[in-house]
Amino acid sequence: MATQHSRSAARLMMAPAVVLLLGWMLVPLVMTLWFSFRNYLPLRGGDLGWAGFDNYVRFINSSSFWPSVSTTLIIVGGVLAITIVFGVLLALLLDQPMWGQGIVRILVIAPFFVMPTVSALVWKNMFMDPVNGLFAHLWKFFGAAPVEWLSQASLTSIIIIVSWQWLPFATLILLTAVQSLDGEQLEASEMDGAKPLQRFGFIILPHLSRAITIVVLIQTIFLLSIFAEIFVTTGGSFGTRTLTYLIFQRVLESQNIGLGSAGGIYAVILANIIAIFLMRIVGKNLDA
After folding, report:
1. 140 in any annotated domain
2. What residues contact residue 232 under an 8 Å CB cut-off, 6+ apart?
3. Which residue ranges of the chain lie beneath pLDDT 70?
């Protein structure tokens, strides 16, 4: 058992890393909070003094605020639905014995390691281009007019691109859960006459519930700050402006640091509300 001396030594050795980590997180947050109460316009006079809650009122009363929040939630919900459904299907498929199983698994997981900007450019130019894209050629092959994805179905396009990036992550987590499933239980249910859908609904899906909640929690945290895919493809046009992209426009395009910082605090509040809600769900599933 660890003695009091060894525990104190462990705390002492961990202290520099903890202090550095706290500083790494708290300093930007404190600076954002400070600037959110200031009239700070770098190209129009710099720091013009105290603004109070004016930046918060202006940001939330902006006609773009609530549409950006709803767009963010739609993208998050759409990506979660696609990655969980197809992640479960891929996990079940990859768990089956097949030739070259290891290579297939690597190919399925590979998109997760592609940079968001690169994957967005690939989808924009190779798949969704209305003239030379793969989808355009398929539409022409079947005698239909090509779809201008990034303008006519912009939100759907963003969801498809982001889902392609996050599907490998969900598949990997769910595949690990599928592999931990008791095979004897499935064999016993099959001998008792249970059909494949019954085995999936009453045995496999409940077993995957914990893995699904973990996937939902982790992906939601990252998806709330989606930016690169929108910047590369639509530039926030055609109803794809998320809260993160709106903050970017206020800070860099409008050069209003105070207003953008207030938006950043709203983004932190929204992320914490959703995280607390999801943690309650995860906690219930993990305790079950």
Report:
1. yes
2. 116, 117, 120, 121, 124
3. 1-3, 5, 44-45, 183-187, 190, 192-194, 282-288
- Locate 19 and state its tokens: 């202090």
Q: Please, which residues have CB within 8 angstroms of residue 263's CB and are 6 or more apart in sequence?
A: 59, 243, 246, 247, 250
d(CA 232, CA 95): 36
Structural domain includes residue 33:
no
Predicted confidence (pLDDT) per residue in 61-77, tens digit: 888 889 999 999 999 99
For residue 236, give its domain range: 55-287
In a domain, 270, yes or no: yes
Query: Domain with 203 in it: what CATH number?
Result: 1.10.3720.10
Give CA–CA dist 247/244, Å, rounded: 5
232 domain residue, yes or no: yes
Q: Is the distance from CB of 231 to CB of 122 less than 8 angstroms?
A: no
Smallest CA-to-CA distance from 220 within 264, 282, 155, 150 is with 282
Centre a 10 Å sphere on the Cβ of residue 145 and count the other Cβ atoms it contains.
Answer: 9
Residue 138's identity, in one-letter code, is L
Condensed to tens digits (0 to 9), the pLDDT of residues 152-208 reads 889 999 999 999 999 999 998 998 888 887 766 666 776 766 677 777 777 778 888
Structural domains in the chain (count): 1
Q: Looking at the whole model, is its pTM more than 0.90?
A: no
